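Troubleshooting: if your tokenizer reports a length mismatch, compare against these two reference records.
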Amino acid sequence: MEDKISDNEAINVFNLRKYKYDIETLERNIDNICVKTCVNTQILTAEFCVKYILNENYMSCIEDTYCIDKGYVLRRQPHLTNEDIMREYAKINNGDGYEHGI
């Protein structure tokens, strides 16, 4: 089982492959993490996935825009359902979602 560390420790040692982080820590550090690694190694909420993982503004490179989509997230986060993702997506921009869709 992987270790879980506090936010203070995360500042010094931010390693998504080695540690599990809570959603608040991930949100505070979203500009310093690779979303693809995050979705592959962390346990995420539907809200986090819609706000960050499926949002092109947080993707690390152009390859992520082709690779990371709703299906990718659902395969990597098996506790989430399509309905979970779509419910959170509907909350964005008064129901219009993101400009680029998901």
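Reference record two:
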Amino acid sequence: MALKNTAWHKVEPGHIVSFRYKSQDSNKSYKRTVLIINPDMRYRKKSTKRIKRFVVGIQLDTAVTKPITETKLEMLFKRTGGLEFEDGAVSGDLKDRLSKAETIKLTGRLRPFFKYLRTYSLREARRNRVYLEMDYLRIPKDTLDKFDAEILASYERLFEEYGV
């Protein structure tokens, strides 16, 4: 797995990132690999009227749990719109920025993955570095082959169109 050091403000929906995070009921932080759905979702607390910011994502793997299976991962990418090659990294094909309503609509489509859906406090997550996964090894080979075929077909269409 190749990792690229990045910053939280550069993380976009669809990126697969790794970072360390300590949950509220734990004493130790663990490395987590997450498919980002919304890197900055804002929520106004009813009691204090203060705005809390969260990172919403599908947790693919942690240092202490089993990773998500290949079949579930393949279904996850189908429901999020497929794969995309962006900034040298393979990622899910999502919009650049999602509103709160769009995030709720997308998580509705991901109903079978509620077990893996997580929200992380952005304030706590920013305390540790975030790494962009350049080639996440657990993506099924079938999915990557379909993705490669789509890229080749799009290049062939461009070559035919411009006569190269």
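Descriptive notes for reference record two:
- The two ends are 35 Å apart (CA to CA).
- The mean pLDDT is 78.
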